[in-house]
Amino acid sequence: MLLINPAPDNARRAFLRSSAVLGSALLAAPALLTGPAAQAASPVAAPPTFARRTLGQGKAAMEVTALGFGCMGMSYHRGPVPDRQTMVRLLRKVAESGVTLFDTAEVYGPFINEELVGEALAPFKGKLHITTKFGFDIRDGKDRGLNSRPENIRKVAEASLKRLRVDSIDLFYQHRPDPKVPMEDVAGTVRDLIKAGKVKRFGLSEASADDIRKAHAVQPVTALQSEYSLMWREPETKVFPTLKELGIGFVPYSPVGRGYLTGMLNAQTNLYPGNDNRLGLPRFTPEALRANYPLVQALLDFGQARGLTPAQLSLAWLLARPEQVVSIPGTTKEAHFHENMAALAANIAPGAWKQLEASLDAITIVGGRYPPEQQDHSGD
Ligand SMILES: NC(=O)c1ccc[n+]([C@@H]2O[C@H](COP(=O)([O-])OP(=O)(O)OC[C@H]3O[C@@H](n4cnc5c(N)ncnc54)[C@H](OP(=O)(O)O)[C@@H]3O)[C@@H](O)[C@H]2O)c1
């Protein structure tokens, strides 16, 4: 939960108008209304049909729903930690709705997010893809920097398997490249874990095109997970050509800009100092939040005419990318989850997207996404 002061009046009015038409968007996405969740069925009931995409190719391929779910904020870095059983119920509702891709990491908590996901999704064992990440040196419950040494990767795999209550990790990402460990050694270690049946697929996060190539040569990579949204489009030039050439999928994290692109945060927002890393991000200073508001306003204006909220637009834009793209929005609120999933029903002409992109390109974003010292090793 964030301690949020109301958005400016014009933004809130536009949001409420958009919400009023959300009902029709949901009707256009029957899976969201007719699935087992709507019938309060058992958590193991068959999920409804949902648009699917394939990340990676060949033996590395993984077919998942076109939108996944990011679990981090349910226990880490997105405000006061919500009641655990409420999060267990929400995760089960997400799975019942038909979503098959769930993302977590050892460092989220650390450990408690994997434990939450493991408990919540245990009734769906074998029916979902749960992805997690290694690559940090966690000692005495604290993140002490990077560690992708082979012995640590093996240790994390064993511990994550237990916490997630699975027999094999569906996709094991390196959370950040470790300058002390050659990418070939990392990929070789994951290859051995795959051979041993402990891991099914290999992924990278925030890796460069060069690192992706080195890793993929040793063990085919299923997906790269990096930040990508209407607010941060650098991957398009830096890594998309390589991903396309090698047939690797792309999983954008922070797809609604860590909340900013929903229009629900502004310069008056009080983020919770106990558990919210956004307080340390240059883009979340009051000055940056104020300076970047034209971006939110452009989304409100564009969405108003189309009956979509800024969050839905941000996700629909990612769904409209030509690459193998499956984003993982995170939320602690069931209402936000339904709002986000309704992005699947958005139908916006390519020309209109170009118009929106052009209007956003004209806005200079204030504040880096990470402080310089964290640029290479932040876990979220
Ligand atoms: N590989 C990496 O290094 C890395 C880094 C960061 C994140 N991730 C992954 O990506 C996932 C998502 O990232 P993220 O949490 O940073 O960013 P995000 O999904 O862009 O934003 C999440 C924030 O937006 C809010 N939100 C979501 N939908 C909303 C809606 N419809 N209306 C209003 N607010 C809404 C959530 O608050 P409420 O709870 O109030 O809805 C939450 O504070 C994480 O869970 C994690 O799995 C990976």
UniProtKB/TrEMBL annotation:
SUPFAM superfamilies: NAD(P)-linked oxidoreductase
Pfam families: Aldo_ket_red
Start and end residues of each NADP-dependent oxidoreductase domain: 67-358
Sample GO molecular function, one term: oxidoreductase activity
Keyword Oxidoreductase: yes
Residues of the signal peptide: 1-40
Gene Ontology CC annotation, any one: cytoplasm
Keywords: Oxidoreductase, Signal
PANTHER family for this protein: AFLATOXIN B1 ALDEHYDE REDUCTASE, ALDO-KETO REDUCTASE
Protein name: Aldo/keto reductase
